Here is the input.
Amino acid sequence: MGKSNIKILRLFFIASMFAYSCKDEAKKIKEVKKPNIIYIMTDDHGYQAISSYNGALNQTPNIDRIANDGVKFTRSFVTNSICSPSRAVMLTGKFSHLNGQRINSQSFDGSQVTFPKILQETGYQTAMIGKWHLGSDPTGFDYWNVLPGQGDYYNPDFIEMGKKSRVEGYVTSLITKFSLDWLKQRDTKKPFALLMHHKAPHRCWMPDLKYLEKYNDTKFELPDNFYDDYEGRTAAASQAMHIKDFCPVNDLKMYDKEGEIDGPLRKYFEIQINRMNPEQRKVWDKAYDKEIAYFKEAGLTGKELMEWRYQRYLEDYLRCIASVDDSVGEVLDYLEENDLAENTLVVYTSDQGFYLGEHGWFDKRFMYEESFRTPLLMKLPSRFKKKTTSKLVQNIDYAPTFLELAGAEIPKEMQGNSLVSMLEDEDKVEWREALYYHYYEYPGPHDVKRHYGVRTDRYKLIHFYNNIDQWELYDLKEDPSEMNNLYGKDGYNEVTQSMYKELLKLQEKYKDTTVTDVKLN
Here is the structure.
């Protein structure tokens, strides 16, 4: 071989190595630029109690920072409005009938595919901190530190990587501290995914000491349908989640030292309040003894009693949210101070919606809007522009979204749709026109009947079944509060048939064979 040919080969070799090096370097840069993920989920935080959605009840300036700099979803929903099933759907991207978690009392099968496991495989550091509430130990996480069961508000137990211990402090502040501690000690060369799950504002709504008297001078307006009579809605009438069903001790904090105020959950609340140390208890008693004295002396009855209960409920519920808002502020500040804000997806949501007096209720479970719909805010400045979207999204969509952002393959078994393309160019993406829902936990707490249904842009069709056979149809444009059941009424047969066909189509699409022979009556 001549010298000129050898020279050419050498140049070719050098060029090839340089190209390979550049390609390898580009790959590394791409990997470094994978977005971090912080998924903040509260328990039972209704969208009505976030000021970027409403503002009539409370102000949440830090949660609003996510909305102000990111995307606000105005029509975000769950597939099954109850705690454990909703969490399982979020992890797996699959409906309850396929991931196995249909009701709270079941134990989650941690061997199945979840998005944290896939993120681990693609080089992410993963952590789960806070309320887990799935019966089994977390899987797919490099680090986990979770509350056992529902968890406690004061001086709670935590299970850190299998080791249980009691920690002094308030639960929201502790979850925040542990989350920030983990962020500070992580491997900064790798992207991270942190699931930060708050207990608040779950029942029994025990606020932090610094907020015990917040809202004392606030008069909350009653929802328009607070005194709903449930005409034409048998299932709605038969529930046991009315504000009249509150335990005065547990739910309204009327834990008197004399033991004169009783209720079915007094012993449970006694366990909760006895977790406090003497200093905490002193501040607590100072705040609530005044309320207890008023309750005993006033002798409230009828509407006066109902409306007092409503005020007490909202005060404590919103006080718990004030601490969550503080927590969100701490996390956002950390990201900004450490130059992480631009390339970190921050998600704020709840495991489901919640009733704040609508229909006279608290709790969730029903497919009616307040519990079916959930807040959802997302901020990722490097990818998503600020906007508000009214597309129909559901919690089956979270896992595929996180995986696409991470550059990972989305398993075919996941039933949700990634939100990425829709968020980047909403007008060019075909999106779903209907949502499917299925609730299973009956018999169970609050006596909400089993039901499934379909929701489109305008209409909602629900079938209550098992020990009842009732259909309900709502025109959400004309009746957003869902007070007028149109099923079987003149002029609505065509809409009913169309919704029924959509329901059957979605049951087939999502492989829900738990109910068969679905027929209109």
